[in-house]
Specification:
There is one protein chain. The chain is mainly beta and 494 residues long. Helices cover 4% and strands 37% of the residues. The longest helix has 11 residues. It is globular and about 65 Å long.
Amino acid sequence: MSRMVTRREFLGLTGVGIGGLALGGCGVLSGGERRGLPSPARATGTGRIREYAFEAAPTDFEIAGRKFSTWGYDGGVPGPEIRLTEGDTLRVLLKNGLPDDTTIHWHGLPIVNEMDGVPDVTQPPIKSGDDFTYEFVVPTAGTYMYHSHVGLQLDRGLYGPLIVEPKREGLSYDREYTLMLDDWLDEASGTPEDTLEELRSSGGMMGGMGGGMMGGSGGDPAMSGAVDYPYYLISGRVAEDPSTFVVKRGEKIRLRLMNPSADTVFRFAAAGHRLTVTHADGIPVKPVEVDTVRIGMGERYDVMIEAGNPGVWQLAAVPEGKDGLARAILRYGESSEESPPLTDLRPRELEGKLLSYADLRDAEDRSFPGDGLLSGPDRTHEVSLSGDMGSYAWQIDGQRYPDADPLEVRDGEWVRITMRNRSMMWHPMHLHGHFFQVRNGTMSGPFKDTALVEPHMGELTFDFVADNPGDWFFHCHNAYHMETGMARVVSYAR
């Protein structure tokens, strides 16, 4: 078929990154090369080096006065905050004090392949007693995380926040707080490895942990993971012993919401306040006001709240389809004598306007070329997501990683992946090394790196530009699904 321009020539206009200009105002990613959002190849360094040294090691962790033995970074859960500016070089020396191999994955950041932290894909695992230095230029601002990518170590305490500030901040706000939402069982109900063995032996029936089929706890199993956890945490603290965030009337508050949990989708709300969503997975979106947001494992949202309703309020995260509550307290300075709300009080905002991907638009109206102009992407992968409950095994197109074919791409291609969920479980699918654009029809949907595929034949499609060569992990961010096979490698043809 003849064209006015070839697809490769036209898609040469796709993207220089966050600050790129739109082509003729039409919202197409612009630039001199066929490129998408920020990647290591185009990262402009500041010349500054930010150095950290962590030890992953066994540690004691206290929950509401009860002590547990777990694994953490530098003795804390979550691990230490990393904060730097886009373009800085991050250098982290990781010492492995665990009795097992480990790595660190820099979740959401499109960095050079050999620093991505996936064992036996991008690096050999770090042996017990050894160390490894991660070093890379951080290409873009946003809210990210770091965590172990070995086995079920994420479901212990091996995670932490990674905040990358922009060179010029576009938001105006007075205070900022980071909230990490987590599910916790380590040593409280055995270890994560014990839990996986029980799932395998019971076909997903976690009766020993108080759950029904697939951990439904009387709720809709389509809205839950497989495990009912004894504790749900916000930034390492349970509802009975919450963190308190102090604000003043009239202030604008930025909340960075992250879900590093292993098996739980959360719904978050701030009692007495609405949420204005400004970023999805670190990338700016056009502000949208909602009452509550659903956050899948691996997802992050930045939201703003206007402190215009003095009092003491719940910041609540409810696990979808499970019993329990995680919370923090939002306290106005003038309400210092008021008692916090009861532990089991759930904000009515949780039943209000729920954010959907269809509500989100890229802040700069960037989009891939529409199919009306070109025939479509260079390469399409259509995959099905399913599970075998009898053996508790999860797969993509009937194949279980590591015995699974790679999803091949070539450097510079416009790639489309369509996922169809043939199970009754949520699957937060995460692509390493790239941002992708969720397709909202013909609109400029959000750019993300992790997206929830709804259960019961739910379908989600995203596009990305293959602009970061290497072998990249693509997997469900439910740690138990990933560990039992729901993963592939996106491999650049050599």
